[in-house]
Design brief:
single chain, 286 residues, alpha/beta, TIM Barrel, seven-stranded parallel β-sheet, two-stranded antiparallel sheet, 13 helices
């Protein structure tokens, strides 16, 4: 694939005014998990080739016998979702929620997305962005720009950590490039840092704040397995448990509160963290 030239012109980057955050993005959160993002969700595939080590959808699919550890990474087309004629729904739709948009799945994903958008729906497109896929989506969904909000999942600035936890997903540079391209093309952009994989996720927030026209969601890893861990994997799990501890979370939240209002106003804390504070009788301001 040819590298897309001149994605972000330095002068444009300096002069480009930030798009105001959507009112829906700053309303009080409701629900948990994906319900914090959208009222409903649609998926075009079963399984996900990214095969992320912390994936909740994978955990549930294996638990209920829909997939196995071995075949989860095989993405099987959800034909019903593709042929369905969608109507306008109440509230925003998240697409996808249990798989990603990859070069192999792109065509059918576009078919479903265009149906949802033609019906007048507002769609939140969530992905660990593959640059080629994002380039295609931006071009092929251009007419629906006002109905789309991208949420790019960027969990670490370290490719070493990304390769372990998200083995088949794009690296950090490609994800950042995709985020910049979407903003440059005039689409609404936001970011998911869930689960954060760095001890200090604020470095990531500061680095990418400029390219997010909407919110930046921060959450911890919900499920960190304790069994079946190989010796060469142990350091990753031990590190994740350490940075997901109550002490570490308190430190992160305290540092977030010190950020400039221009950045702090975009930050949303996921239920994985807010529920911990709720148990302590504390309501977070984010």
């Amino acid at each position: 694939m040819e590298r897309i030239p001149a994605l972000i012109d330095k002068k444009n980057k300096r002069n480009d005014k930030m798009i105001k955050t959507e009112s829906k993005e700053v309303k009080k959160k409701k629900g948990f998990g994906t319900k914090e993002y959208a009222e409903s969700n649609v998926n075009a595939y079963f399984g996900c080739s990214n095969n992320c080590g912390y994936c909740y959808a994978k955990k549930m699919a294996i638990r209920f016998g829909r997939k196995t550890e071995d075949n989860w990474r095989e993405m099987v087309l959800n034909k019903k979702a593709v042929i369905k004629n969608y109507k306008k729904r109440k509230g925003r739709i998240m697409f996808p929620s249990s798989h990603d948009i990859t070069p192999e799945s792109l065509e059918y994903c576009v078919i479903v997305l265009r149906k949802l958008l033609k019906a007048g729906n507002e769609v939140l497109i969530v992905t660990k962005p593959n640059l080629w896929c994002i380039h295609e989506l931006l071009n092929r969904l251009e007419e629906f720009k006002s109905q789309i909000l991208f949420r790019f999942t960027i969990t670490s600035i370290s490719d070493h950590k990304l390769r372990f936890w998200e083995p088949n997903a794009p690296n950090y540079e490609e994800r950042v490039f995709s985020l910049k391209l979407a903003k440059y093309k005039g689409f609404k952009t936001s970011m998911s840092i869930e689960p954060y994989l760095d001890a200090d996720p604020i470095k990531l927030i500061k680095a990418l704040n400029l390219y997010c026209t909407g919110t930046m969601w921060l959450g911890k890893m919900n499920y960190i397995k304790t069994k079946g861990i190989l010796p060469n994997e142990k350091k990753f799990y031990d590190f994740q448990r350490k940075i997901s501890s109550w002490y570490s979370i308190q430190k992160i939240i305290s540092n977030l509160e010190k950020l400039p209002n221009e950045i702090k106003s975009k930050i949303k804390i996921k239920d994985s963290i807010t529920r911990l504070y709720a148990k302590k009788g504390v309501v977070l301001k984010f």
